[in-house]
Amino acid sequence: MLLSLNWLKSFVPFDGDIEELAHRLTMVGLEVEEINSPFEYLKSVVVGKVVECAPHPNSDHLSLCKVDIGSEVLPIVCGAPNVGESQLVPVALIGTKMPSGFKIKKAKLRGELSCGMICSQKELELGEDSSGIWVLSEEFSNLTVGENLISALGLDEYVFDIGITPNRADCLSVLGIAREVAALYSLPLSLPSANVQEIDTPLDYDIEIQSPEHCFLYQARLITDCKIKPSPAWMRFRLIASGINPINNVVDITNYVLMELGQPLHAFDRRLLSGNKIRVALAKDKEKFVTLDGKERELLATDLLILDSEKPVALAGIMGGENSEIKQDSSEVLLECAVFNPVTIRKTARRLSLTSESSYRFERGIDQLLSPFALERAAYLIQTLASGKVLKGIAKKEPKPFVKAVIKFRPNKPSDILGVEIEKDFSFKTLQKLGCKIRKEESSWEVEAPSFRHDLQREIDLVEEVGRIYGLDKIEARLPKVSRTLKDEQDPKVLFLRKIKHWAKGIGLQESINYSFVGEKDLDLLGLEDKEKRVYVLNPLSEEQNVLRTTLLAGLLYAVKTNFTQNNKRIKLFEIAKTFTKDDNVETLCQENNRFGFVLSGSRYPENWPFPKGEFFNYSDIKGLIEGFALSFGLPEMEFITRREHPFLKPAVEIIVGDDILGFMGLIKEDIAKQYDVKDGNLWYADLDLDKIFGYYLKWTLRFKELPKFPASKRDITVVCPLDLQIGSILEVIKGVQCKILEDVSVKDIYFPKDKAVKNVTLTLTYRAKDKTLKVKEVDKVNSNIANTIVKKLNVSFP
């Protein structure tokens, strides 16, 4: 926002240092991005007096003038028809660079010397009149010949370019910034005059709001006998300094009040309106409407319109209609002042790519309690500057009256939050200066936020206000006090998750850190039918991140694709993070689950000497990692059960301990893998539920046992099994024998004979006694018993 310093001083009597003011505003959150001098180009333009004016001897439309500029009298050739003696005029001296880029030089025009230029309003960009030179003496008094035009006309020397954050809509006006300056410097704040003199004729106008959820307040005044003409110089100059081009007095007044008070207004030509009714209603789907810029807009049923008795006349809160604009011959003005739903205006403005000063403010929120004053202020200015007659009464409807926020505030809270001692009296005076009303209670205050501060909703918001006025830059950076050691403060679960990360990195996996947000299409691609459990993001940054992940695989697959794109096709990635599912039974309505997921793809060994080539990750690798994890974190004996049906794995193997399913693993389906550039289909994935595993981890107790004193004896057993017989079934039978000297069983080899639907499984059994060396016959007898038991209880045979 561009802030005119001269305009600001009409609200607060500030006379301090400009640079210091810019710094203080920046420190309270109103960043002054730049200090401009908008009229710097006029530094070599002065007030001159025409002392002589005669016809040019060699031209029928030029005049030879002698112009007094205080220090000397200059000969100037002028082509304006209205130049005459005794006039005070703006004179651009030799060397002046005009806004158009033209540079004034000493020259001869039709044989006569000219040492300067007498300028029009248009040439100086201080008005729209280009019909002749600007006769200053007709608009201004007490001008001094030779004085620089900037100081002579009271133009702004300094204009602040302030970056206003979205939460501070109250500062999108001179009044809003003035409130801040008044609070910072303890200065009085004065409002402009709005003393409207009504005529006896009553206003007969009806307001009908058909969509009250989109329009909270609508009010209008009718002003007759208006004379449309250029605005006075002081108003034009302030608008120009604020980046707004003057048009005519009535339109300029609505823009002036907009910048002054932050309330958008609109002026309709009453002659072009049908009936004595204004309606506020939603548009019809695909309805056409031509706005003030002459463009036809196609509307939707969600766009809000202002209508008379027959037709739409304005796009609410954004831009008026071409069919009701103020023109040079307008005399009756219907002045609108309203408050619209910010969401409604924002959606329409963005969809149509139609941003205006009005929509910019409506989108961020308007001070509803100030709106009646803004209407009176604009009516007063039209009455004063356009000789308008204001009819008696105001047409008004307010379906949603404004309700101020009342906040409980503990006066000791600023000290606790900010870490410095803040006196209660300072907090009280600060909040009062910012417009809050305070009622003190025993242990807390009841603070009523002002209507212009929509961002004050919670106690912490008030603490922030106290802090920024105190000066956040005054608070020294220091570490907080810690009453206990960091070790005592750490959560066991945090340490558990950290330990798993160290383990994963230690076995050669690389950590992948992904966003919690994924695209719904990514979850759909995995075949997950869990839409009713998904947590959707209300305002996602993009459609690729519109839902919280329900599985870690969605993010890991993108990491795999990124690696493949960079020609890294040996993948060993893991991620430890939370997944999210909708749950109405928890306070946050979202169930969070800590998961450990990892993917393997490509070559088992690095593809360089001395490692063997052609060996790729397979099921044994992913299962081996799970078993190693179980040993490292105290999991009981696990069971691996194959499930044929799974949305993205083929096959899928569930990891079970007792009645708990701790996770699953398997080969990702080839069609899904190809979507992420894995062409050979060799992509293995495992996923563990760390919240369940943590329960087992807490029960895990390390025990030490004595090293064996006597040697072990090993025997092999080979059996021929059906293909669908699981190794676990064989191990279960062996375990059931309950042999005291059997120490361990391991799978030595699995062989698949050609053209036979069987497999040969070789097991190695280790025997050891605690108190003696075992004899060969003793071991052979036990081993033979176990082998026969396997054959007896299972559908297997000896080769």
UniProtKB/TrEMBL annotation:
Keywords: Aminoacyl-tRNA synthetase, ATP-binding, Cytoplasm, Ligase, Magnesium, Metal-binding, Nucleotide-binding, Protein biosynthesis, RNA-binding, tRNA-binding. GO terms for cellular component: phenylalanine-tRNA ligase complex. InterPro entries: aa-tRNA-synth_II/BPL/LPL, B3/B4_tRNA-bd, DNA-bd_dom_put_sf, Fdx_antiC-bd, Fdx_antiC-bd_sf, NA-bd_OB-fold, Phe-tRNA-ligase_IIc_bsu, Phe-tRNA-ligase_IIc_bsu_bact. Residues 708-799 form the FDX-ACB domain. The keyword Amino-acid biosynthesis does not apply. It is found in: Cytoplasm. Binds 2 magnesium ions per tetramer. Belongs to the phenylalanyl-tRNA synthetase beta subunit family. Type 1 subfamily. Tetramer of two alpha and two beta subunits. HAMAP family: Phe_tRNA_synth_beta1. This is Phenylalanine--tRNA ligase beta subunit. It comes from Desulfonauticus submarinus. The gene is pheT.
